[in-house]
Amino acid sequence: MQSIYAMHQNSSDDLIKEEKFLLQSLDNIQDLYLIMLSTLTEMRQKEMDFIEKSRNKHLSTPEERNPNLKFVNNRLLQLLDNDQKFSDALENRKINNWRLNDDYILILLKAVKESDLYANYMTSSVSDFASDTQFIHDLFTQVIVPNEKLYDYLEDYKLTWVDDIPVVNTQIARQLKMLQENENFVIPQLYKDEEDKDFAIQLLRRTALNEETLAKEFEDKTPNWDTERIAEIDTIILKMAICEFQKFPSIPVKVTINEYLEIAKEYSTSKSSIFINGILDNLVKEYQTNNKLNKTGRGLM
């Protein structure tokens, strides 16, 4: 949707350029995932460095010589730190953001150590994998994710990440919550398979190349609306939904409608989802009557 909108705004018909940008933007989500996950291991490393320096001070205090190591010995943090696949992924994708900008890790670590979560965890007598995992999950969702300075950094680093941050953080939080002892932390793949990857390009291409034809499908379905007065985002959403109806037989109608209603709620006007739902609902009924819905498989209507 954003790609097609960008083409409209730039009066561009360079579909190849937009396809490359779309794929690059999608690929960058993997970097965002690794950057967010690595905040945990980088904070542990910073705290280990701090503890070591404090111990070696000429006039170290008894507390500095015998520090509370519960945070740096957290089982989940150690699991991530020792995970070779995680390390390989960081290296292969050249993720070194926090090595170059360690002030953000220090900001996060300070926020962590000032939190009640941290205080309660460090003084708790409970010490097992479940409690360690719960602590890291809560720390991630309640302290790290809401940090405004971190968000500002990510937004400035790549503007396309603004929409990806909630998705990535939700994925990480879910993994942290579900991880069991003796399990390896699995770095998810961006795409299920090549067909999944190809879908993004095919949807962009088939919508962009057939915009006039797709627009005609709903022109007479808006008797109380001048077509030119319909929000541009709404017209793009309608065209993409109709494109899925017509050209993607494996996608259930309900899935298409639900997805685009969510997009409308997020990106368009307050009444857009109601407007779009009405048009799509009427179109589906018309297509069903005229046998124009070519959906394959069970439960796709």
From TrEMBL:
It comes from the Bacteria. Pfam families: NusB. GO terms for biological process: DNA-templated transcription termination; transcription antitermination. Residues 188-285 form the NusB/RsmB/TIM44 domain. SUPFAM superfamilies: NusB-like. One of its GO terms (cellular component) is cytosol. The keyword Plastid does not apply. Keywords: RNA-binding, Transcription, Transcription antitermination, Transcription regulation. The keyword RNA-binding applies. GO terms for molecular function: RNA binding. Belongs to the NusB family. This is Transcription antitermination factor NusB.
